[in-house]
Write a structure and sequence with these properties.
The protein is mainly alpha-helical and 270 residues long. It has one domain. It has nine helices and no strands. The longest helix is centred in the last third of the chain and has 35 residues. The two termini are 15 Å apart.
Length: 270
């Protein structure tokens, strides 16, 4: 593990950020687990982030569990915003550094929306089904603008770039960046490497399908063609079959496991 910093304020920030990263992993464990469970005939249903939260709140002590998830996601947003504005890892202000920090910021914003969905469920003002409705509404708003089709195509390119970056991280070994491998035993290191590579591959595939669906929306001028994770799962099942869907879902379970490992092993500068 990283050298201990005895500053109490920094320790609290680190623990909050680690809790956030671990919570993100737990959400992916739910998404992948529920979808794999459905794909292999055990019950469950294909689901995205909102659907995973909806499943959680329906469980015994579900409201308490979901409030814990909200707190954890706040920790993740805090970490992403700290990376964006404090730049603790010296990404810099050149084009590459700014691009990375914009990526951190957009990730934080996405999880802000997820927190909003969770709190809405807790307050009884949401009946989310875990689909791509929010994204579909966003795409429709873009299509209604002048040059809307080109704006949606630009969004698709962003998704495609993110998908390719996930693949790059998987096979270049970049997913191991900032992880403390030296203090991990051999078994833990192997689990970290395998879950990271498989997890980032699966995530890249899902985001790639979302990019494809967004392109279809731009070409057809129909926002219903777009979608989120749940819609990507449906596309994979329709086009490639249930087994392929199950394998990709298990890949997202692996990503969730990797994020839980990362929560405890990541180097953090505060």
């Amino acid at each position: 593990m990283e050298k201990e910093d005895l500053n109490p304020d920094k320790q609290k920030k680190k623990k909050f950020a680690r809790f956030g990263i671990g919570t993100k992993g737990a959400v992916y464990l739910l998404i992948g687990g529920l979808t794999a469970w459905a794909a292999f005939g055990g019950g469950g249903k294909k689901t995205g982030s909102d659907g995973a939260l909806e499943y959680l709140i329906k469980q015994p002590f579900g409201q308490i569990l979901l409030w814990i998830v909200v707190l954890g996601l706040l920790g993740y947003v805090f970490w992403r915003m700290y990376q964006t504005f404090a730049d603790p890892e010296d990404k810099g202000s050149d084009a590459k550094g700014i691009a990375r920090r914009i990526g951190y910021f957009s990730s934080g914003i996405f999880y802000c929306f997820l927190i909003y969905s969770a709190v809405s469920m807790l307050l009884g003002s949401s009946s989310s089904s875990g689909g791509g409705g929010g994204q579909e509404s966003f795409i429709q708003k873009l299509l209604n603008q002048e040059y809307g089709r080109w704006l949606v195509a630009a969004v698709a390119l962003i998704f495609l770039g993110k998908a390719l970056y996930q693949m790059f991280r998987a096979y270049s070994g970049k997913f191991k960046d900032k992880l403390e491998e030296t203090d991990m035993d051999e078994k833990a290191r192997k689990v970290m490497i395998h879950t990271g590579r498989v997890g980032y591959t699966a995530r890249g595939l899902v985001i790639g399908v979302i990019a494809f669906l967004t392109v279809k929306a731009a070409i057809s001028y129909d926002s219903s063609k777009a979608g989120g994770t749940k819609d990507a799962f449906s596309f994979v099942q329709d086009e490639f079959g249930t087994i392929v869907l199950g394998i990709i879902a298990l890949g997202l379970v692996a990503y969730g496991i990797f994020m839980v490992i990362k929560a405890s092993e990541r180097k953090m500068n505060f």
